[in-house]
Amino acid sequence: MLWTGIAYQGMQFAAINPAAFGFAALFVMQGVLFSVAAVRGTLRFGGLIRLLMRLP
């Protein structure tokens, strides 16, 4: 996600769309949050699926 935000959105896509800088910032923020959650051990997957599987 960090690489996608910097290399693709920030460097490549920005040449044709000025809004790409905003998307680049969001991708980088998502990558940082994902990395922090992974290092802390608080990363969980399958939240919605687990809720749906509990329904009768």
Backbone CA Rg: 16 Å
End-to-end span in angstroms?
37 Å
Mean pLDDT value: 82
Strand proportion, as a percent range, falls in under 5%
Strand and helix order:
HHH
Considering the chains and any ligands shown, give keywords for the structure.
56 residues, mainly alpha, elongated
What does this structure look like?
The protein is mainly α. 71% of the residues lie in helices and 0% in strands. The protein is built from 3 helices and no strands. The radius of gyration is 16 Å and the shape is elongated. The N and C termini lie far apart (37 Å). The model has no long low-confidence stretch (mean pLDDT 82).
Brief summary of the model shown:
With 56 residues, this protein is mainly α.
Show the helix and strand layout.
Blueprint: H1 2-12, H2 20-40, H3 47-54
